[in-house]
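Researcher: Sequence of SPFH domain-containing protein follows. Predict its structure.
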Amino acid sequence: MSDPANLFIWIGNHYLYLLAFAAVVILLWNSIVIVGGNEIALIERRWFGSKMPQGRVVALGNEVGIQARTLGPGLHFLIPFIYKATKSVFTEILENEIGLIESVDGTSIPSGRIFAAVVPGHNSFQDGEAFIRNGGQKGPQIEILPPGKYRINPYLFKLTKGNVTEIKDFEIGIVESVDGVAIPEGRIFAQAVEGHASYQNGEAFINNGGQKGPQIEIIPPGNYRINPYLFKVTKSSATKIGDGEIGLVESADGSAIPAGRIFATVVSGHNSFQSGQDFIMNGGQKGPQTEILPPGVYRIHPNLFKVTKAEAVIIQKGEVGMVTAQDGAPIPMGRLLAQSVPGHSNFENGEAFLKNGGQKGPQIDVLLPGTYRINLNLFNIQVASAAVVEANKIGLVTALDGIPLPEREYVASPITGHNDYQDGSAFLLKYGQRGPQLDVLRPGTYYINPLMFSVAIDDVAVVERGQVGVIVSNVGEDPTEEMKKRLGSSQTGASEEEGKEKYVVPKGFRGIQEEVAGPGRYYLNRRAFMAYIIDTTNITIDWDDQEDTRFDQLTVISKDGFPIQVSVKVVIRVRPDQAPYMVAKVGSIDNLIQHVIHPMIDSSFRNQASTASAMNFLQSRSEEQAKAESRARIDLEKYHVECVSVLICQIKLPEDLMQTQTKRIIAEQQQEMYKMEQKSQAERTEMEKMRATADQQPTLVASEIAVKVATQKKAEMITLAEGNAESKALEGAGEGKRLKAIGDGEASKIAAIGEATAQAYNKQQEAIGEEAIKQIKIVELIAAAIQEGKIKIVPDVLVTGGGNAGDGLMGQLSRLLPGVDLTALVNKQAALPKT
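Model: Prediction complete. Tokens:
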């Protein structure tokens, strides 16, 4: 107990010391400020200091107020009641974030400026006193805080976190500055400045003269720590030109295009319009650009350059592209198409076209089949079909530009080197003439500029077998008078003075060509050469009443006044070597027939008919034909035509005249027939008499033979009797005599019959003739055959008309067989059994 008592006694005796110690401990406790590792301490000086200057809100040094400086992590001693410490956590900027600072104290931002000027030494705004002492300005700061932890006085600096600006692939960033110097008058976009690291260093941008407003530079894909208060970034897609496309560019800024020009002059170094600054600095002009963008991806400022996509120009097979330039030098007076210039690579290089003197308007060069990247703002493309000449056709060409044709010339003089009119420039350079051309296009496909040449399709000239082509030339030199006389004198029947058919000329001269074209196909320009096809085979011309003939039958008047209709054929032929002279004389075969032969034949037969009666003209037909042919041959020789023949096919007399003539002839024929019939009956009577005599001849002969036979038999019997009386040896001799006698008798019989028959035939021949005997014999044979039924007189089916029997077969047989009873034979045949 004594110890506690002693303690209290001691305390009582030393309480003043204890109070002093406690006060010291409390003072020490309040003077110590412990700041954690992730903290800062804001200091406020409350007493015993100088006053802050007017307008200041943050104290420096010994000034009373909230201090600009802060206390970092650690143990700090502050005088109690003078300073008050308030703890705060570190400012942390995460990845993909930025810190935007606005100062609440400092000097004023100069008039016209929006953002405070950058001052050094403040250690990313962590040293507020250095910021203020070094002239830091009050307001939004240009500098930003990158990712990290910062000991920033939140009372002095207001911090706002923002996101990193991310530009993805195939995107660009379009920047507009809200601070900087003014853009010069007349310019739309701010001039590019160096050192700002894609707008991440706002201080460098401002210090280097960055201008306020839309920026000409863009931000490529990536992550950027850009102050969004200073720079407004708008994302846009990159310009993508696909395959088969082109990009047409129009600039919204730059110098003015010179007067008279429509498209801007090409400048170098802008990397396909991706560097707007280089475009402007190198003198790029405002307006439509000559250059185009080929397929690819481009980071082009869309506000500076307007890019319009267009299809690439595709010229298909069998087509040509006609080009019209919208800019360039003027076409010279009198010319239709612009002069060709080199180096523009089929109009794909507009810059080379304009620099090399390309002219404005329709171009003489064309685009062949293929794909072209052509600036369609500079060049207007029209697609037309190529000139196609099919088989058995030709192309007749007319030039729409060139030097004028000489006077009296209808077809232009030929020139070489234009590749079948596909090189219009070469045509003009070699002084090709405007108008119809002499050279033709043969079958094929030709890529010809329709603005320069028009092509008309025509048929080839075909000369068949049996034909020649007489060529009339519209080109060449005129024949001289000497030549005309020589040509005339060389022709049949022409004197040297006459100069007959003087327009038949040698090759190369204007006129009818002396040399003809034989059978074949010819690529002939009908504007320069006219081909008259002349048949060299026989040509027949008819005058008759058929529908398909050219002329009606001829009607002529005879000497005795009767109209006669004559059908005529005329056969002519043109010799190949005489064809040009025939054409020179009458023009064509049709003209020859229509205007020469037809009038000539008509006149010839009229003249001949007028010198003879109608019947004589008919009866002397061959003589009339010969006279007409002779006259036609002489007349046609004058026209260089050979007359092969003139044929009278038919002569028609008037019907009344023909009836009278027919009746007269019939009467004469009947009279003659009666005389012949009378003579025939007389001869028939005589013949019947001779026939009766002849019929009795066999009986007479038989009687004579019978007498002889009896006599012989008598002798035989006597011989036999004598033989019986004699020996058997004499029988053989007697038999021999008998047989001999029989043979002699038969021979005598046959001789007698033959002699009688011969006499009968001789008498018949003398009476009626040899031919009549033959007919009688035939009739006898027919009669015998009918009697035996071997010839069928009546058919199984008999159809008769309204006439009598004399009109049919029975009548004919009755006249042929006058002595045969045909009716009895018919009845007999009908009674025979049918097999």
